[in-house]
Specification:
About 70% of the residues lie in helices and about 0% in strands. The protein has one domain (about 40-220): Orthogonal Bundle (Urease accessory protein UreF), CATH 1.10.4190.10. It is built from ten helices and no strands. By secondary structure, it is an all-alpha fold. The longest helix is centred in the first third of the chain and has 33 residues, at about 45-75. It is globular, with a radius of gyration of 17 Å. The protein has helices at about 5-15, 30-35, 45-75, 80-90, 95-115, 120-130, 135-150, 150-175, 180-200, 215-220.
Length: about 230
């Protein structure tokens, strides 16, 4: 599955996956904090299992599948297809928090892309068009990855690792866990990510989905949670 990206592409993918990228990913737990508050996640093992299921049930079959389908659409400049995928992502957010997250991270990544490619009129046109669509984060990430020249498997590996690292840091802060426990969870997720990427690449429109009822319920509860560290 690995396509051996060039050094320049590889470094740009590392940049996109970095928690230091100023798009706010560190401020979200995507329902994990609510799962902790409700007593569903209280240990390292439970946190690892929660994130394992989230990777395979929501990320690979939802946002990662949308990114996989958006990458060739960006290459072909198929704006109708891109708008369709963006609408799908936005309409499958099952709580106000999850909707606001994808919108905020999408806007922030667009602003980063504007700055990153300030002197390129063709890229600026693509970025401006996406901004006008109220871009979701997966569609903005797909554009950013497309601009690196990365192949889809490599782009999805970078996306998934960036997601995993942010979520593990959320678990460390909110459970709470030690750094060694976090590294063990991250090691398990990195073993699972290649299979999640393969599934995302293989899914057609008819099998892409965002059905996670308990996550939606917990996210809605988190909106009114008395004490919290994260925005979702």
């Amino acid at each position: 599955m690995l396509s051996h990206p060039t050094a320049a592409t590889f470094l740009q993918l590392m940049w996109l996956a970095s928690p230091a990228l100023p798009i706010g990913g560190f401020s979200y737990s995507e329902g994990l904090e609510a799962a902790i508050d409700s007593g569903r996640v209280t240990t390292e093992a439970e946190a690892a299992e929660w994130l394992h299921h989230q990777l395979h049930l929501t990320q690979s079959r939802g946002d990662m599948a949308a990114i996989a389908q958006a990458l060739p659409a960006w290459a072909a400049q198929d704006r109708a297809r891109l708008a369709q995928l963006n609408d799908w992502v936005r309409h499958t957010r099952e709580s106000a928090e999850l909707r606001l997250q994808t919108e905020q991270m999408g806007r922030s990544l667009i602003e980063w892309l504007k700055n990153r490619h300030a002197g390129d009129a063709a890229i600026q046109a693509q970025v401006q068009w996406l901004a006008a669509q109220d871009a979701s984060y997966p569609l903005a990430f797909a554009l950013a990855a497309h601009l690196t020249g990365a192949h889809a498997p490599d782009a999805l590996l970078a996306y998934a690792f960036g997601w995993a690292e942010n979520m593990v840091q959320a678990a460390i802060k909110a459970v709470p866990l030690g750094q060694s426990a976090g590294q063990r969870i991250l090691a398990r997720l990195t073993q699972e990510i290649p299979a999640a990427v393969e599934l995302a690449l293989a899914l057609p429109d008819t099998e892409r989905q965002a059905f996670s009822p308990m996550l939606a319920i917990l996210s809605a509860r988190h909106e009114h949670q008395y004490s919290r560290l994260f925005r979702s």
